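Course assignment 3, question 2. Fill in each field.
Student: A.L.
Task: Predict the tertiary structure for the chain below.
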Amino acid sequence: MDQASTTGVTDPTAANHIWAQVDHEVTDQAPWVAMFNPKQLNLVSPRLKGYLWSPQWYLLLDQASVK
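Answer field:
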């Protein structure tokens, strides 16, 4: 990566080839990344009001109430 950064100043085309090699090496070292797909299962009661789901924060507790 240092070589690509240094080469990029004088020869951008050669630096692009080096960056492509870096990209391939990193991608080949991480084949497990696409294998992880988390699932969320929520069971709710009819008494639950204001149920809102956020992919980032999951159940938004400040919006929910139980009657």
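Instructor remarks: The chain has two domains: 1-36, 37-67. The first helix runs from residue 2 to 10.
Grade: pending
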